[in-house]
Amino acid sequence: MESQEIARLRAEMIERQLVRRGIRDQAVLDAMGALPRELFVAPELQADAYRDDALPIASGQTISQPYMVARMTELIAPKPGMHILEVGTGSGYQAAVLATIGCDVVSIERHPDLAEAARARLAMLGLEARVRIEIGDGSLGWPAEAPFDAILVTAAAPRVPPTLRSQLADGGRLVVPVGPLKSQELIVVTRLQDRFDEHPFGGCIFVPLVGAEGYAASPTPTEQR
């Protein structure tokens, strides 16, 4: 049973960081209000789990700021049963939000240690049936499961990866941070048959997407908003 303090911090996160900043999708708010975010960070950081910040996790990666998780999720208009690709499993928190909403997720992670830890967290929460984590180059997507109703990229790409775009279903949305390492723009790509519409949705800073259609392996800056 969680403590009253944790419940209070989670409720404050929803109200102050999400609702007051314009997050309106009730499914997103309900999912993030139900998930124990403190389980997705190291024990010494659990007191900070509901802060308005990205936090470090293993392998030089981060768990995104709560608002950014909510914003990216809301932008794909998630519905139960949607077939979603996540690029960059990280802690597993973004996948857990999608699975709690009822989406079926294929998540790609290039760090085996992160993938293993995320699988354990998802199993602890009873979400393992809705999320399959694979090891690979996420910039190339997962063609065996394409097309996807939506694709979420939780790392910054130098440009919209063409292969990911091609794996969208008709009407599907790709949300990806695009730009140089120190500052990016959140881009939403919508597929309309053979046409791809792109729209910006504000600035952000993410760790780099490393891969064939991302950045070469390099030191990773701390994700901030």
In short:
The chain has 225 residues and is an alpha/beta fold.
* Number of separate domains: 1
**What is the CATH T-level topology?**
Rossmann fold
What does the average pLDDT come to? 94
Q: Label the overall shape.
A: globular
- Strand arrangement within the widest β-sheet reads 5-4-3-6-7-8-9
Broad CATH class: Alpha Beta
Number of helices, where a helix is a run of at least 4 consecutive DSSP H or I residues: 6
SSE class: alpha/beta
Write the layout of secondary structure elements.
Blueprint: H1 4-18, H2 26-34, E1 55-56, E2 62-63, H3 66-75, E3 83-87, H4 93-101, E4 104-109, H5 112-124, E5 131-135, E6 148-153, H6 162-166, E7 168-178, E8 184-192, E9 195-204
Parallel strand pairs: 3-4, 3-6, 4-5, 6-7
Antiparallel strand pairs: 1-2, 7-8, 8-9
Describe the structure.
This protein has 225 residues and is an alpha/beta fold. It has one domain: 3-Layer(aba) Sandwich (Rossmann fold), CATH 3.40.50. The protein is built from six helices and nine strands; from the N terminus they run ααββαβαβαββαβββ. The protein has helices spanning 4-18, 26-34, 66-75, 93-101, 112-124, 162-166, and strands at 55-56, 62-63, 83-87, 104-109, 131-135, 148-153, 168-178, 184-192, 195-204. Strands 5-4-3-6-7-8-9 form a seven-stranded mixed β-sheet. Strands 1-2 form a two-stranded antiparallel ribbon. Helix 4 (93-101) links the parallel strand 3 (83-87) and strand 4 (104-109). Helix 1 (4-18) packs antiparallel against helix 2 and helix 2 (26-34) packs across helix 4 (93-101). It starts with a helix and ends in a 21-residue tail after the last strand. Residues 219-225 have low confidence and may be disordered.
